[in-house]
């Protein structure tokens, strides 16, 4: 008799210039989700990198991560942050040093996968995640939705990380597409 395959422990990260969206999965079970502030105005790249390294190493050790999924840096005009470019490289380096499978995942493709026929905006994906897959996120979605358009939507980075994780797991494993949540 064969033993069942061990679960995939995945850490999905959506790096931003000020915030780091984090989602931890065991298969499609969402174990942890959060947004971490990594750079206050006036900090330099080295300080941000130290903070990111600490957060990632802590998560890898605590959750025994096997796969690291990261949103790649985009060189389009609205993504001009040197911090984000350095962060993506640092995340790749840190994951490789820890012996993880490191994957760069296209956020647009991930959003389109979850939205199917709907317009694949970050807010639409947050709505789909909070009302369907992970209803315990509904309070965070409502907070984000209530934020005026001209204010930064703090939790969107976290919802983006969850999107990357769900997409990669559904595309690269034989897991059923219905999730089970573990509570926070």
In short:
With 184 residues, this protein is an alpha/beta fold.
Question: Can you describe what's shown?
Answer:
- With 184 residues, the protein is of the alpha/beta class.
- It has one domain (9-172): Ribonuclease H-like superfamily/Ribonuclease H (Nucleotidyltransferase, domain 5).
- It is 45% helix and 17% strand.
- A 5-stranded mixed beta sheet has the order 3-2-1-4-5.
- α3 (107-115) packs across α6 (156-172) and α4 (122-133) packs antiparallel against α5 (138-146).
- The mean pLDDT is 86.
Distance between the termini: 35 Å
What kind of sheet is the major sheet? Answer: 5 strands, mixed
| Number of helical stretches of at least 4 residues | 6
Low-confidence stretches: none
CATH superfamily: Ribonuclease H-like superfamily/Ribonuclease H
Helix-residue proportion: 40-55%
User: What structural category arises from helix and sheet content?
Assistant: alpha/beta
How would you sum up the global shape? globular
Overall number of structural domains: 1
Number of strands: 5
Question: What is the spatial order of strands in the main beta sheet?
Answer: 3-2-1-4-5
User: How are helices and strands ordered from N to C?
Assistant: EEEHEHEHHHH
What distinguishing features does this structure have?
alpha/beta, 184 residues, 6 helices, 45% helix
Write the layout of secondary structure elements.
Blueprint: E1 9-15, E2 19-26, E3 29-37, H1 45-63, E4 67-70, H2 82-97, E5 101-104, H3 107-115, H4 122-133, H5 138-146, H6 156-172
Parallel strand pairs: 1-4, 4-5
Antiparallel strand pairs: 1-2, 2-3
């Amino acid at each position: 008799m064969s033993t069942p395959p061990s679960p995939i422990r995945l850490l999905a990260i959506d790096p931003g210039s000020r915030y780091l969206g984090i989602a931890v999965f065991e298969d499609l079970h969402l174990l942890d989700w959060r947004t971490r502030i990594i750079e206050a105005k006036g900090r330099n790249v080295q300080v941000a990198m130290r903070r990111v390294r600490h957060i990632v190493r802590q998560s890898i050790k605590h959750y025994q991560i096997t796969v690291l999924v990261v949103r790649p840096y985009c060189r389009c005009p609205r993504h001009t942050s040197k911090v984000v470019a350095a962060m993506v490289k640092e995340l790749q380096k840190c994951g490789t040093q820890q012996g993880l499978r490191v994957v760069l995942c296209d956020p647009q493709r991930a959003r389109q996968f979850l939205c199917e026929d709907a317009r694949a905006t970050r807010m639409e994906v947050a709505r789909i995640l909070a009302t369907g897959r992970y209803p315990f996120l509904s309070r965070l979605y409502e907070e984000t939705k209530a934020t005026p358009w001209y204010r930064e939507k703090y939790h969107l980075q976290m919802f983006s990380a969850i999107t990357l994780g769900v997409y990669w797991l559904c595309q690269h494993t034989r897991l059923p597409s219905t999730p089970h949540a573990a509570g926070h």
